[in-house]
Amino acid sequence: MNAITERLFTNWHFSRWLRLGMGLFMLVWSTQTGDWGIAAFAGLFIFMSLTNSGCCGAQGCAIPNRKKTN
What we know:
It is a single chain. The chain is an all-alpha fold. The protein has a domain at 12-54. The chain contains three helices and no strands.
């Protein structure tokens, strides 16, 4: 359980806050207009922000370091 709470409550940076804000905005917008397709995207954005996942979240697009050999 500590790993889950650690992932949720640590390492909040600008892109996580941006995804959360966009997700909440889209969720409110979709409930006001009744468009549940947008609500699915809102859920995706909120999930990505809470779990810090996505293409570039948690170094998803990082290039691995090469080990130097002599």
